[in-house]
Design goal:
The complex is a heterodimer of chains A (about 300) and B (about 230).
Chain A: H1 2-21, H2 23-57, E1 62-67, H3 73-84, E2 89-95, H4 97-106, H5 111-115, E3 125-130, H6 135-146, E4 151-156, H7 158-200, H8 202-210, H9 215-258, H10 270-295
Chain B: E1 18-26, E2 32-41, E3 46-51, H1 57-64, E4 72-77, E5 80-81, H2 90-94, E6 97-100, H3 112-122, H4 127-140, H5 156-168, E7 174-178, H6 186-201, E8 205-209, H7 214-219, E9 222-227, E10 230-231
Parallel strand pairs in B: 3-8, 3-9, 6-7, 7-8
Antiparallel strand pairs in B: 1-2, 1-4, 4-5, 9-10
Helix pairs in contact in B: 3-4, 3-5, 4-5
The chains are: A alpha+beta (about 300), B alpha/beta (about 230).
Chain lengths: ~300, ~230
């Protein structure tokens, strides 16, 4: 056990020395992996930001319920009771026709239009806030409420919610596809690095085998090298993405103020960053595994 | 470690540390290197293997270390059947052998000291213990003052002694040397052979292949002579 730990420490030190021995090549490799990973990672970060943005727009999904003009006070009370009893409705707010008219009159530019009206054309209405912003729930409640007596029209935000969630789903799939493809690139880069490393260390591997080194012993430093290189690449990807966000935010801040918003892109979180490092290290390990399985066993002493 | 420490030892063979029976070796290109080779070596013996160039001396030694596999027949080393050994077991077989190769197989990117350290690092010795043993081995072959030197800076005789230090540092039961004196002048060669003799005197089984009959005339040891792959 101690010997095993000792060799792990030794392999790690060896890996560091090997990376330090050719800093330019190591850096270049990390950069190649970093750029390959930065594309899907950037897509992921943008998507996460859009999702947050969309949530701000279509928060919780709302359903507007407009009543028939002939609805009486008792009808309104009945509908209010039924809406509150509907599962999936988080909040029910009554907007009376006078209240709605007053609201419209306050809106800039609407007061003059409203003044020309003899009667109040607005119906009584309810605004139902959904418990969750799911298109499925929105559709179900819309159908259900349509069936209530004295309900003239039900207007759900579901169309908007659906469009946004559809777009986000599309984006997620695109990012996942890109991530999958570029993961192969990372595995391939590691495969090649390890292959070259095995070739340069051919003599050492042969001699090690002759003096009784096990395959696990010979493999270990390569796994360290592959995983560490992957991790460096992951780090490079995180730096690239965060730098890009900082640059984009400078422009975005100006744009957002025009729209009276202070919305900016969020940087990659710590958890996400660590996950990227772990993922990249795993891919590096995988690339090493394939390379080692293919090349190391061919080196047998003669 | 005792010679017969392996678990699969069959009791009837414990007396021989190396045993070849009806061993044939044919290389993939059809060349028949060994034909019906039979012999045994007792623990603590010193045996010379001679024969013309291409007689199969190197092949015979490679079969012992599982560097090559016998085409047919049985090669027993310390009771273990090397001709059918599983690959994962090979490293553990080799840790009991001290191997000295015709082409030396030193690592030229590290010092003499680090070359000798390698077998101990592989078996997971602590650095302190390994360094102590490596220096002892270098001392035994008279290279202690050259431990910082790189192999390229050593003379032919010194390189050969470095190989010996690396082979004995793990205190193997069996030393196997393939043409250890091939490229050395007589004086150096005698010193190398004397070194093997001293290891043999403390109980190590020694097999040396050579086409140089000077040490044989001098020591009068047991000699196996190969002629076109067969023992004479």
């Amino acid at each position: 056990m101690r010997a095993w730990l000792r060799h792990h420490a030794l392999s790690f030190g060896q890996t560091m020395r090997r990376l330090a021995a050719s800093p330019f090549a190591s850096l270049l490799n990390a950069l190649v992996i970093g750029i390959a990973l930065a594309l899907p990672l950037g897509g992921y970060v943008l998507l996460a930001n859009l999702q947050q943005f969309a949530r701000g727009l279509a928060t919780d999904g709302q359903i507007s319920v407009f009543l028939a003009p002939e609805a009486s006070k008792s009808d309104i009370a009945e509908i209010d009771r039924r809406l509150r009893g509907t599962p999936g409705a988080a909040r029910v707010e009554f907007v009376g026709r006078e209240q709605a008219l007053a609201g419209l009159k306050r809106a800039p530019g609407m007061a003059e239009v409203m003044a020309t009206l003899r009667d109040n054309p607005l119906p009584d209405a309810f605004v139902v806030t959904l418990a969750a912003s799911e298109p499925e729930l929105s559709r179900r409640l819309e159908q259900e409420i349509k069936g209530f007596p004295r309900v003239a029209h039900v207007q759900a935000d579901s169309a908007w919610v659906q469009r946004v969630s559809g777009l986000l789903r599309f984006g997620r799939t695109a990012v996942a596809l890109m991530a999958t493809l570029l993961s192969f690139a990372l595995v391939a880069v590691t495969f090649n690095t390890i292959r070259l490393q095995i070739m340069t260390q051919r003599d050492e591997i042969e001699v090690s085998k002759l003096i009784g080194a096990t395959n696990a012993y010979i493999r270990r430093p390569f796994f360290y090298l592959g995983a560490f290189q992957g991790m460096l690449g992951g780090l490079a990807a995180c730096v690239i993405v965060d730098l890009a966000i900082v640059v984009l935010n400078r422009d975005l801040a100006g744009l957002a103020t025009l729209y009276g918003s202070d919305w900016i892109l969020q940087l990659l979180g710590l958890t996400d960053g660590l996950a990227v490092l772990a993922f990249a290290a795993t891919l590096g390990w995988l690339g090493t595994f394939v390379s080692v399985s293919k090349h190391l066993y061919k080196i047998e002493p003669r | 470690m005792p010679a017969n420490s392996c678990l699969h030892c069959s009791t009837s063979l414990e007396t021989d540390i190396i045993s070849f029976s009806r061993v044939y070796k044919r290389y993939p290109d059809g060349y028949e290197a060994l034909k019906d080779v039979n012999f045994t070596v007792a623990p603590g013996e010193m045996v010379f293997i001679t024969g013309h160039s291409g007689a199969g001396k190197s092949t015979l030694l490679k079969l012992i270390a599982a560097i090559e596999r016998a085409t047919s027949g049985t090669v027993l080393v310390a009771g273990q059947n090397v001709s059918s050994i599983r690959r994962p077991a090979i490293p553990f077989l080799r840790r009991n052998l001290g191997l000295i190769f015709q082409d030396q197989k030193l690592l030229y990117d590290r010092s003499a000291f680090d070359n000798v350290m390698l077998p101990l690092v592989v078996t997971g010795h602590s650095w302190r213990d390994a360094a102590r043993r490596a220096r002892a081995a270098l001392d035994k072959v008279g290279l202690l003052d050259r431990e910082r030197a790189y192999p390229i800076a050593l003379s032919g005789g010194e390189q050969q002694r470095l190989c010996i230090a690396r082979a004995v540092v793990n205190r193997p039961n069996i030393l196997i040397a393939d043409e250890p004196t091939a490229s050395l002048d007589a004086e150096y060669a005698d010193a190398i052979i004397a070194m093997f003799r001293s290891f043999n005197q403390v109980g190590v089984t020694v097999l040396i292949s050579t086409h140089d009959d000077r040490p044989i005339r001098k020591l009068n040891p047991r000699v196996l002579t190969l002629h076109h792959g067969s023992l004479a």
